[in-house]
Amino acid sequence: MTHEKTFIMVKPDGVQRKLVGEIIARFEKRGFKLVAMKMMKADGPLLEQHYGDLKGKAFFAGLVNFVSSGPVVAMVWEGKDVIKQGRVMLGETNPLASLPGSIRGDFSIDIGRNIIHGSDSADSAAKEIALWFKEGVVSWDCGEDKYIYE
Ligand code: IDP
Ligand code: MG
User: Fold this and answer.
1) What confidence tens digit (pLDDT) does each residue in 101-126 have?
2) Ligand 1 contact, 114 CB (< 6 A)
3) pLDDT of 1 over the 80 cut
4) Rounded to an integer, what distance in angstroms lies between the CA atom of residue 148 and that of residue 150?
5) Neighbours of 9 (CB within 10 A)
6) 111 in ligand 1 pocket by Cβ < 6 Å?
7) Is any atom of ligand 1 closer than 6 Å to the C-beta of 59?
8) DSSP letter at 42?
9) 100 pLDDT band (50/70/90 cuts)?
10) How many CB atoms lie within 10 A of CB 136?
11) Does the annotation mark 117 as catalytic?
């Protein structure tokens, strides 16, 4: 299914550290297609919904507080297996457990400053895309697709 979509967000630490271009380049070069992107400040209620599954965790308030502290770059990427592949490209939640070559493994150290979010399942991807891009995403034909997919 080449039209699978995932939600990827560069968190405030990734934006401040000017890693947005690097992250976009990695997804583009892999062959995935950008179908939505915006820079925005996420407020508490949006993040409480986004991270709803983590309510009750000791780090929840700090997480919401940090991710709402500055601009984020929210994106939707499309392509075959992009949800799982995106998670592999991100690395582990704990950057110290992430392999070099992964985004977190290459650019971060602490778990609460791991610079990027990626949907972890088809269900959460659908929910997150609907939550962050109420306006919908862009459908476009990429001329390179015939050189990426056989
Ligand atoms: P994920 O981002 O790899 O999917 P989740 O378990 O969904 O990881 O947690 C969401 C975010 O919450 C993580 O990316 C990380 O920034 C933060 N987080 C997770 N576990 C901890 C923790 O034990 N301490 C501090 N922050 C954490
Ligand atoms: Mg998660």
Assistant:
1) 999 999 999 999 999 999 999 999 99
2) yes
3) no
4) 7
5) 23
6) yes
7) yes
8) P
9) very high
10) 11
11) yes
